[in-house]
Design brief:
- The strands form 6 sheets. Strands 12-11-8-13-16-17-19-20 form an 8-stranded mixed beta sheet, sandwiched between helices.
- Helices cover about 35% and strands about 25% of the residues.
- The longest helix has 15 residues.
- It has 2 domains: about 170 residues, Flavin prenyltransferase-like (Rossmann fold), CATH 3.40.50.1950; about 210 residues, CoaB-like (Rossmann fold), CATH 3.40.50.10300.
- Bound molecules: cytidine-5'-monophosphate (C5P).
- Cytidine-5'-monophosphate binds next to helix 12 and strand 16.
């Protein structure tokens, strides 16, 4: 619930602005008050009348409105909220925010505010992928701005790809997560999860049996303690938790790129089952069956994401946690792995088929730190996740 919370909602100029009308309703249903700000371009897509009728508040749109200024100055307006939400955040608004422009009411409020900011980007896929937008996004993340979406799918302009604004309920979940108070409030944690798929050709791939259940539970537990969670997931069989920033990938190489784009972070938890190898001679067209001839696949080593981040020097998260799925000699192998990879902790588990852990709902783990090995009783993956999240909070001095 958002009872008693005030959201300053800046509606930018994109077709997704229509979803912001529903967002206002959803926020109001949950007890939040919404102060709406409509940019000039936003006003081309939704009317001030619809916005103010749904918010049951006056819409602000003009920097030099004398009545507004007499009632509540724009600096004051930027600070009365618990959270500033920009939805849709257009490429132009993101650029203005990253550069610190203040040439209209929305950008001035964003520059003047000392309140946390959440953006829900929405734009054409090419604009989203453009290096300028990538740079602006990285700058905004570095400035502590939270990001919801965008989602992948068909777009109003007829193209397909990432750029669709998050759905209203996804933005609500991100708002609830941003306002959650807990020991990890104000901290950012990156989590990898799920398997990776390494293509053989456009229709075949090599994968593993990871369901993503443990990584998903860890992301949810960190979110519940108030952390901003960047969740980089391979093609898992469980859906990502609401209220986290989801980055979907297929291959290990893509996972490394998204992890690097997701930093800096206070802590990083590498729960993904990353494929050790990729097919070096993966084809761009489907391999044909040839009578009497078997194909030969040659392999190349994948980047070790955990080791890369553990050894990155400047910008390394303060706490790096790896996982070790072993089938025998669990503690000895995991202890050696901790040293080899250079991470701070290893969460080791026995995934021999008899345990039913891989793909199951329970886990029995041993936490390996510089102080030694600590075996936890077998419990639900959710419970393992909560205990681990609490240990992470304590280690970050946030307990
Ligand atoms: O070497 P192994 O796969 O057993 O190590 C497991 C740990 O390393 C996990 O935390 C996993 O997420 C991480 N890992 C990685 N990149 C790889 C291989 C493993 O991040 N290429």
């Amino acid at each position: 619930m958002l009872t008693g919370k005030r959201i300053l909602l800046i509606i930018g100029g994109g077709i997704a602005a229509y979803k912001s009308l529903d967002l206002i309703r959803r926020l109001r249903e949950r007890g939040a008050a919404v102060t709406p700000v409509l940019t000039r371009a936003g006003g081309e897509f939704v009317t001030p009348l619809s916005v103010s009728a749904l918010a049951e508040e006056k819409v602000h749109s003009d920097l030099f409105d004398l009545t507004d200024e007499a009632e509540m100055g724009h600096i004051q307006l930027s600070r009365v909220a618990d959270l500033v939400v920009v939805a849709p955040a257009t490429a132009d608004l993101m650029a203005k925010m990253a550069q610190g422009h203040a040439d209209d009411l929305a950008s001035t409020l964003l520059l003047a505010t000392d309140t946390p900011v959440l953006i829900a980007p929405a734009m054409n896929v090419r604009m989203w992928d453009h290096p300028a937008t990538r740079r602006n996004l990285a700058t905004l993340r570095g400035d502590g701005v939270r990001v919801s979406g965008p989602n992948e799918g068909g777009m109003a302009c007829g193209e397909f790809g990432p750029g669709r604004m998050s759905e209203p309920l996804e933005i609500v979940a991100a708002i609830e997560a941003a306002l959650a108070t807990g020991p990890l409030s104000g901290r950012r944690v990156l989590v990898t999860s799920g398997p990776t798929h390494e293509p053989i050709d456009p229709v075949r791939y090599i994968a593993n049996r990871s369901s993503g259940a443990q990584g998903t539970a860890i992301a949810a537990a960190l979110r519940d303690l108030g952390a901003e969670v960047i969740f980089v997931t391979g093609p898992a069989s469980v859906p990502p938790p609401p209220g986290v920033t989801v980055r979907r990938v297929e291959t290990a190489a893509q996972m490394l790129a998204e992890v690097q784009a997701g930093l800096p972070a206070d802590a990083a938890v590498f729960a993904a089952a990353v494929a050790d190898w990729r097919v070096e001679n993966a084809g761009t067209s489907k391999m044909k069956k040839v009578e009497g001839r078997l194909p030969t696949l040659s392999f190349a080593e994948n980047p070790d994401i955990l080791a890369t981040v553990s050894k990155m020097g400047a910008g390394r998260p303060g706490l790096v946690v790896g996982f070790a799925a072993e089938t025998d000699d669990v503690i000895a192998h995991a202890t050696a792995k901790r040293a080899r990879k250079g991470c701070d902790w290893i969460v080791a588990n026995d995934v021999s088929p008899a345990t039913g852990i891989m793909g199951g709902s329970e886990n029995a783990v041993t936490l390996i730190t510089a102080d030694g090995a600590e075996s936890w009783p077998r419990m639900a993956k959710d419970a393992v996740a909560r205990q681990l999240a609490e240990r992470i909070a304590a280690a970050l001095g946030a307990g």
